[in-house]
Amino acid sequence: MQAVIAGRQWLFLALLLIAGFEADAGIYSCTGAKGNRTISDHPRAGCVSQTVHGKTGEPRGEVPKFQTPEEVAAADEEQRAHAMRKAEDLKRARSDRELLRLFPDQAAHDRARAKEQADIRHNIRQYEGRIASTERERATLMAEKDFYPGGNLPLKLKLAFDGNDATLAATRNSMQTAQTDLSRSDAKFDQQLAYLKGLWGSRR
């Protein structure tokens, strides 16, 4: 709605100015979008630029070009897009400055990677130890199972097998999650390092 109102205001002003030119009739020189030039005794629409001349040919001024509501809306949209691009550029510049502050060189970046991944690697080692321990417990249970060749295991031994299976499955799942976290961390730091190399290079 605002774009339509603005377009009408420009149209009204343009018509007033054109009317002023027409009150003191002259010769109008219209330059089209392809550079073609048209001469007439009245203002024309669709001109890229339009000049009014006196009857003796002297230029007297430019005829203002008014915008349609669609042109006003398009211009507003371009202004908004330009403002958004400018805001994104400023945001990126601030982010780059912060990255350079945190990681002035690759050694600082390597230390940050090692620090973030230290806990993950510690957990993975713990899971590996727990899996090895659980598998040893299972070997002991299997040896005890041999005393019951018919498969008719006592309840206590059955429960021990169930508990061993559950512990082994849960620990393996936790280790897989930790390994996924480690892979994601490496991917993040690798991508960040590639970007930082460009920033470090631009400072030289």
Structure description:
The protein is an alpha+beta fold and 204 residues long. The chain is 71% helix and 9% strand. The protein has helices at residues 2-23, 69-102, 106-145, 155-202, and strands at residues 27-31, 37-40, 49-53, 59-62. The protein has a four-stranded antiparallel beta sheet with strand order 2-1-3-4, with no helix packed on it. The longest helix is centred in the C-terminal third of the chain and has 48 residues, at 155-202. The two termini are 52 Å apart. The relative contact order is 0.08. Mean pLDDT is 85; it is low at 1-23.
Average per-residue pLDDT, rounded, comes to: 85
Number of strands: 4
> How many helices in DSSP terms?
4
- Termini separation comes to 52 Å
What can be said about this structure in brief?
By secondary structure, the protein is of the alpha+beta class.
Task: Write out key terms for the chains shown.
204 residues; alpha+beta; four-stranded antiparallel sheet; 4 helices; 4 strands; 71% helix; 9% strand; disordered N terminus
